[in-house]
Write a structure and sequence with these properties.
CATH topology of the largest domain: Rossmann fold
Number of domains: 2
Strand order of the largest sheet: 2-1-3-4-5
Helix content: 25-40%
Structural class: alpha/beta
Number of helices: 12
Radius of gyration: 20 Å
CATH superfamily of the largest domain: Response regulator
Distance between the termini: 40 Å
CATH class of the largest domain: Alpha Beta
Shape: globular
Largest sheet: 5 strands, parallel
Strand content: 15-25%
Order of helices and strands: HEHEHEHEEHEHEHEHEHEHHHEEEE
């Protein structure tokens, strides 16, 4: 049985079957991954790994793929880009994986891209920076929305609210820096002037000095690009300083962990995020709803609150497996070509339509603008 189309992907996971035994070859289909399961970016890597393990186990418990098991080979980078490169080398040279789905952070993904290009192995990143797929690199793809898309979504919302002067504050990580650069580049297109441009380090525990400078400007809103604990600290400091202008965050905080860390200070914060966070509130006519609700229910039954980050891993895994299905082979060049031909794949991040010029395949409409109210997500539009 061929793998079903993505519109019913989750419902048919137990019947997953890819190509023929002869075409696939080998004893198993090897999926390699390197994720930040521990360290400062563990809120990304932990749900990603749990998702991959959950669905690989489900496939194998159902008899595998045409009698072959899917073998998940994982290494924990701790969020260290140098370790990511070392582990990617091991996956390629020693473990001889067929495809790599991983890279929790932008820094680690960008660091391994030259290696996967040289080795000519398909790589689906789970990180946000637009530089991962722009300009297009032959062997690299990604599933999360880009920082450029997030900035555009945020600025569009600001424009509708009549906001024209914005203070920017960002962290020191690869995602943070890329988001800052995209924000500075895109702001003029929305009639927005950046009146302050502050930053903080990855280990900083108080940003009141930077935010005091922002308070002294004529900013009508604050935009924070970052992930990890930094954005929660910024959120708390904003409220502690009595700053009442709107605060926007990026999709780098699209999990309940951010709300838990920021507490009551998160009330009223807006951010763009995948529809997964509000799956139950989507109309039944939404083509994503069935996939989102099924993934959400399955993940939360075992692990607690769902996050968009685990969803990115789900999308990456099944985009890779469906490509192998269409190729009827684990030949890396054939699989790469089929990933690039992904069309109409309904995932947790949106409906993916990739091409030789677009190795993400999502538009800005794949984002929902959310606002935190009473400690939960609500849809703005």
């Amino acid at each position: 049985m061929k793998i079903r189309k993505s519109v019913s992907l989750l419902a048919a996971a137990m019947m997953l079957s890819l190509g023929t035994v002869q075409a696939l070859g080998g004893d198993s289909i090897k999926v390699g991954t390197f994720l930040a399961v521990t360290g400062g970016a563990s809120f990304l890597g932990d749900p990603e790994l749990k998702t991959l393990q959950m669905y690989v186990k489900e496939i194998n418990d159902a008899g595998g793929i045409d009698g072959k098991s899917v073998e998940l080979i994982h290494y924990d980078t701790g969020g260290n880009a140098k370790e990511a490169v070392n582990f990617a080398k091991r996956l390629i040279q020693k473990d001889k994986v067929d495809v790599i789905v991983g890279g929790s952070t932008s820094g680690s993904s960008l660091a391994v891209m030259p290696l996967v290009a040289s080795a000519e192995i398909p790589f689906i990143s789970l990180a946000g920076a637009v530089k991962i797929i722009h300009p297009v690199q032959k062997w690299t793809f990604k599933t999360p929305h880009t920082d450029a898309m997030a900035a555009a979504k945020i600025f569009g919302d600001m424009k509708r609210r009549g906001i024209t002067r914005v203070a920017l504050i960002s962290g020191s990580g690869g995602f943070d820096k890329s988001g800052r650069a995209q924000s500075l580049e895109l702001a003029p297109q929305y009639g927005i002037t950046i009146v302050a441009d502050e930053s903080y380090g990855g280990k900083d525990t108080d940003m009141t000095a930077q935010l005091t400078k922002i308070r002294d400007t004529d900013a009508q809103a604050i935009l924070n690009f970052g992930f990890g604990t930094g954005p929660a600290i910024v959120t708390k400091n904003v409220r502690q300083l009595g700053i009442t202008i709107p605060l926007y965050q990026s999709h780098g905080v699209a999990s309940k962990k951010y709300i838990e860390l920021a507490g009551d200070a998160a009330e009223g914060v807006r951010l763009p995020a995948a529809a997964l966070l509000v799956a139950d509130r989507l109309p039944d006519s939404d083509p994503q709803k069935a996939v989102l609700v099924a993934y959400k229910n399955k993940f939360e039954a075992s692990y607690g609150d769902v996050s968009t980050f685990g969803g990115h891993a789900y999308d990456g895994l099944y985009i890779a497996l469906e490509a192998i299905d269409r190729a009827n082979s684990t030949d890396k060049a054939k699989v790469r070509d089929e990933i690039e031909k992904t069309k109409g794949f309904i995932g947790t991040g949106g409906i993916f339509n990739m091409s030789p010029t677009d190795h993400l395949g999502l538009g800005i409409d794949a984002f929902k603008m959310l606002e935190i109210k009473n400690g939960d997500w609500t849809i703005v539009q």
